[in-house]
Amino acid sequence: MDQKPSEKEQVVSNEAYPTGVASEKYLQEGESFKEDDKSEEVITHGGDTALANAPWKYKMIALVTALLFPFGSHFSASALSAMKKQITSNLAISNTQYGIISASVSIINTIFPIAGGMFIDMFGSVWGTLAINFMIILGSLLTALAAKFESYALMVVARVVFGIGSGLIVTMQESLLSKWFRTRHLSIAIGLQLSISRLSSFLGTLVANSVAVAANDWVWAFWLSFILCCFSIAMNLIYALVVKHLKGQVVLTEKEKEALKKKKTFKWRSIFKFPLIFWHIILVEFIYAAVWSSFQTIATDLIIKHFGAEDRLAGYKASASQAVPIVATPILGFIMDFYGQRVVILLISSIFLILSSGLLGWTYVDAVVGMVFYSISLAFGPIAMITSIGMILPSEYIGTGLGIYKSSNNVGTAILDVAIGVVQDKTAGQSYVNVMLVFIILAGFGFVLICALWWNQFYFYGNLLEMKRSKRVVRMQEINDKELELTSKGKDPYSETPVRKLSYPIVGLFVAALITAWVLFFVYSIHGK
Q1: Region labeled Disordered — which residues (predicted)?
Q2: Staple partner for 189: which of 129, 181, 464, 520, CB 3.0–4.6 Å?
Q3: Would the pLDDT of 27 be above 80?
Q4: Rounded to an integer, what distance in angstroms lies between the CA atom of residue 467 and that of residue 479?
Q5: Rounded to whole angstroms, how far apart are CA atoms 492 and 114?
Q6: φ, ψ for residue 16 (rounded to 5)?
Q7: 37 pLDDT band (50/70/90 cuts)?
Q8: What pLDDT digit, counting tens, does each position of 377-409 carry?
Q9: Is pLDDT above 60 for 124?
Q10: Cα–Cα distance list, 503 to 1, 62, 141, 232, 280 (Å)
């Protein structure tokens, strides 16, 4: 936590929501920055910070097209989880080895999202998203081929390739949306993004086994995933062409080109200037994202083993774990946009995760109840954390911040995927009782951290994360204006902020966790047990 109460004013004056594509035009010193309601011109002077003031016509284009970027990748990931029983039986592998397949997606994304976030902050993300979606298609194709030829080794390679794309595309999507909607309606935009993501995951869990049965071939679940990944890159191409056309209307002066050139030099030390509350949120994310993601990989098999359901029925019931976010996240976006209460919403998420783990691990109440409770947790948690990061980091570092956020997600998931596979293999009858106990312990610890987060943001940040719309909009506009003053002169938003010494051990612990994830992955990949 931050140690000095006086930092509150520094946060208020220096940090803000995220903003748009970094390769846009810079504001010349002394130039005004306003949206002309009568003009169709895209006013993007001021770099990332300026897209928040772009006309709504272009914001809607960015929103609608960007929402479909990762549709295929989310479907593919959930379809793989729903097919755990078929994968372990057809590939003749253990639960630990299945954990390696699942962790293959996470392990590669312990590093790539950070690099991808930095890329976005420095160069923008228009054509980068196309390259990343190509990796998703390639990984999805290799997954289907691995299933067809029943090759465990190829399956691991396929998921690593797939993981490179699936992790980066989400980071790019969240960063892009955050940059467009920084001052207004950020929570709504992220809510819609999470809703579409959960819808695709819901469909993957729901139909994977049914497609396999209907086609009389379990591999067809993966061929369908491949087809939907092709659809996503088609949507991505439309977005890229539209944005390229809009950007083509802007002609940079020599002075603006020089400012852009300065911008494309990432300052590593700035990571150590990030506010300590950012790292607090990352710790909560590290724990909860690991539980959420690992739970999804076992949901269908848990219902089969613990409740004795047949494959297709288990898939239908497990899909309930994805249902609530489809409807709830846009509503939560509106609630947070108007009333704030981000940390309170995160606390509600924590409570439902604990209840879900208890119901599914030790009772025989219909599995749908526990899955819906889990689904509520999944709806409430991520949107609260993502939008909070957008409020506390400077816009020029939002891509990097979301990259670290996504990386922490995957570090935790990679560790826990392997760990729960080992725990299940060592449990009598390979039941999930001990696995659910691990989930409850982690969720309980996270609950304590969230309570501390509320106190942190209230005492050091003037209750910024809980603030209602009327006060927050004024405050964030002031932050945006001060940020524009720096970026318009080619300065870094953190140029006047000192390094926070406590950040060094925090980053050190993050790196240690990353190394642990890689060690576990390779040890169990090689030995399998």
Answers
A1: 1-21
A2: 181
A3: no
A4: 15
A5: 19
A6: -155, -175
A7: very low
A8: 999 999 899 889 888 888 778 878 888 998 898
A9: no
A10: 10, 35, 41, 38, 11
Lowest mean pLDDT segment, chosen from 24-33, 333-342, 400-409? 24-33
| Exposed / middle / buried, residue 77 (Cβ in 10 Å: 0-12, 13-18, 19+) | buried
CB burial string 293-307: b at 16+ within 10 A, e below: bbbbbbbbbbbbbbb
pTM of this prediction? Answer: 0.73
Rounded to 5 degrees, what angle do the CA atoms 98, 295, 217 make?
Answer: 50
Q: CA end-to-end span of the chain, whole Å?
A: 39
36 burial (CB, 10 Å; 0-12 / 13-18 / 19+) is exposed
369 to each of 113, 308, 312, how far by Cα in Å?
34, 16, 18
| 273 in any annotated domain | yes
In a domain, 484, yes or no: no
Q: Which amino acid is at 104?
A: S
The answer to the question of residue 508 being in a domain is yes
296 part of a folded domain: yes
Q: What are phi and psi of 160, to 5 degrees?
A: -65, -45
Q: Which of 443-476 are b and which e, b meaning 16 or more Cβ less than 10 Å from the residue's Cβ? A: beebbebbeebbebbeebbbbbbbbeeeebeebb
Q: Which stretch, 121-135, 233-247, 316-330, has highest mean pLDDT?
A: 316-330
Q: Give the list of residues 6+ apart from residue 25 with CB closer than 8 angstroms, or none.
A: 44, 45, 46, 47, 50, 250, 252, 256
pLDDT of 377: 96
103: containing domain: 47-248+255-472+491-527
Q: Which two tokens stand for residue 248?
A: 């083509």
User: What is the maximum span of the chain, computed from C-alpha positions, in angstroms?
Assistant: 71
Say how many domains are in the chain: 1
Above pLDDT 90, what percent of the chain? 26
Dihedral (CA of 87, 413, 330, 69) sign: negative
- By CB neighbour count within 10 A (0-12 exposed, 13-18 middle, 19+ buried), where does 14 fall? buried
More confident position, 178 or 429: 429
64, 192 contact by CB (below 8 A): no
User: Does 369 have pLDDT greater than 90?
Assistant: yes
**Location of structure tokens 């970094």:** 22
Residue type, 378: L
